[in-house]
Amino acid sequence: MKHIRPAIMITIIFAIVTGFIYPGIVTAIGQVLFNHQANGSIVYANGQPVGSDLIGQYWTSSKYFHGRPSATANPSTGNPSPYEADNSTASNLGPTNGALLNGNGKDVTLNPGDPVPAGATPVAGQKNTYYVPGTYLGVDNYAAQFRKENDLAPNTPLPSDIVTASGSGLDPDISPDAAYLQVNRVAQVRGLDANQVKQLVSNQVQGRFLGIFGDPYVNVLNLNLALDQLK
To answer: Where are the domains of the chain?
Structure first.
């Protein structure tokens, strides 16, 4: 009992301190001083939650600005949509990996009667062989897609963020250059003056953290919400 009693008392004390007092103090400080961040950095529109400052969304409509590529999609497992928050992942492709440019899809030869994988396309000249897209389509494909949807010349220089996936696959931000390259498309679809939309982008640019860390960026969700307010 001489050893058991102190052990029990220490266990109870530490359980109270680390299980109730410390978490309670940290939670209270977070709710008072950092309420927005502590509750998920939720963004509201018309009183309804529409997203988070921290998690990107898959924008496809031509009347909105689009975010960067995401490697969270996995068509072969029935998860074809990028920006799946329950599957945060990177492409894990280094600069010397050929798949970084061409994508990490693969050719699959099926036995007669086997079901064709979701999203697969036949490979010309190869019987029962299909190309199954991977989680990352490749810089070349993303660049061609971005230039086409924004009516840009084939040799238009693009910022690296708009043709590569982020480490989480859920990056909610893009570079100002990536946003400016989409201005003409968005303005044309919405019937707005391009200069007005360009100024909106400039107003949404966030500077470096503490003036020295990171790069300027634009939060795509906040930009599109501000876009919807333009007349």
So the answer is: 4-36
